[in-house]
Amino acid sequence: MSLEERIRSFIVENFFVAEGAEFDDETSLIASGIVDSTGVLEVVAFLEQEFGMKIPDRDIVPANLDSVARIAAYVGRARAQDRTARPAQPAADVVRERHGA
Question: Is the pLDDT of residue 99 over 80?
Fold first, then answer.
């Protein structure tokens, strides 16, 4: 499943999307009424859990989170930035960190 499909699936499963209503990746989730201000926080929680990222408050803006395309682009940028910000760890070290060993 692509990044966009995962995000779209979350939106459809967790917010009211009228039966038969269609929205594309560029549709404003806020202007269309699919996601409200509280819903944005739910989207943030989903992204943090699903993609293992921490979204700083300064990034919780429509430019990053107002459509499936913008969310996917933001996640892509954040992942790329995270990879360049810290050196890769050997898998064994990651497992030890997660399990407190």
Answer: no
**Under 8 Å CB-to-CB from 39, ≥6 apart: which residues?**
15, 29
Fold assignment, 3-98: 1.10.1200
Has residue 68 got a pLDDT over 90? Answer: yes
The per-residue pLDDT for 23 is 85
CA distance 81 to 53: 11
pLDDT tens, 78-87? Answer: 989 877 655 5
Count of all residues that appear for the chain in the document: 101
40 neighbors 60 (Cβ within 8 angstroms)? yes
Q: Which amino acid is at 41?
A: L
Q: Hey, is 63 helix, strand or coil?
A: helix
Q: Where are the domains of the chain?
A: 3-98
